[in-house]
Each structure stands twice: as structure tokens, then as C-alpha cells.
Amino acid sequence: NAGVTQTPKFQVLKTGQSMTLQCAQDMNHNSMYWYRQDPGMGLRLIYYSASEGTTDKGEVPNGYNVSRLNKREFSLRLESAAPSQTSVYFCASSRMEGAGELFFGEGSRLTVL
Amino acid sequence: AQSVAQPEDQVNVAEGNPLTVKCTYSVSGNPYLFWYVQYPNRGLQFLLKYITGDNLVKGSYGFEAEFNKSQTSFHLKKPSALVSDSALYFCAVRDSGNTPLVFGKGTRLSVIA
Q: What is the least distance, in Å, from the CA of B112 to any CA of chain A?
């Protein structure tokens, strides 16, 4: 099993450009999450989707949008990238909202110049 | 709202010695507690969790953690550290409702040969 797959792994953007981070899981999990990891800040939740058809804001949603395309896929979009969005982004999934452990992708490293 | 504190940014231990990585938490009601490990340039991997039951939880790679309700702590331990245990460790918590995991800022463990 591939688990949680994120694309792209690396991306460099200029301020104001847009992009979408893709995430797919093959574990038939109901819930999916987007976190960002910054030095000294740990992981902070951006958005999550408890089940197909629902999305909710996390701790740091400003500047991001998400789409739960189907049960497998959960994308994160930056409409107008800013240098403050330079980070490593992790997608994760779990069997049900909150109850089980999270399974993480390998991360997407984004640099905004 | 739930929160997690990992009071040490860095823990250094000699190979073969016992190790402890500290975590304290704050939640309303009963906590669900997790430990994750992150190796360089990788996603987070699940180590162990406490939901209910025995206060001493055993997990992957010889790690264990002790839940202490009165001290609101969930410290990660291992009797004999290995160099390969060197990594970034995250404690996470959520309440027993349907809320996403909240992560601590992480503790970097360095095991010296």
C-alpha cells in the first residue's frame, strides 16, 4: 500500500502565484487533514475534512482553501502565495475523525520568494 | 481547547542509557494522547497512544509512555537508547469528542554513541 501520497514534493513560487497541493490516500479513511510544519512551531492544523463532503477550518486557515474531491483525495490551494506560507506541508488521514491515529504523507516543501 | 507542552526543545542522552521525553497536556474531559516520531525529511510516524486502560502504554521500537492523570503528563520513555532513536518527537492530544489532534512543538532527541 502506498498510504498517503502528496504531490509535489518540492515547489518554489513567487509572491502572488497560486498552486494546489494534492493528497491521496488508499486506506479507505474517512478523515483527512492538512498541517504545516515550521521550525519551533510544531505542526499546526490548516484545514480538515471529517468525512467526504465536509471541510472545517483548523488553527491557521487564512490564505488557504481546500477541496475534498472524493473519499481518497483532499487538496490544499494557495490562491495568492505569500512568503509567510513558506513551510513544509503534511497531509494526513485517519480511520475516523479524531479517534484513530493519523497516517502522514512524506511532506511537500514549499518556498515562496 | 486542548493544548500540549513539550518543555524541552532538545534532549541528549548517551547510547544505552534510559531516555525520557516529557509532555504535559490540557484538555476538557478525558484525553486521547499520542506520540509520533519524525526522521529527517520524512513524515510523522505513529509510536503509541493512550485512550483508556493501563497507564503504561507500550509502542513501537521499544518505546513506552506513562499516563499520569494527576500531573496531566504523558512522558515518553525507553529503557536503553539507541543512536537510531535520534529524531524529532511529537506529543499530541485531543479530547474524547470529535476534535482534531493538537501537536506539541516537538523535542529533538540526540543519542550519542
A: 23
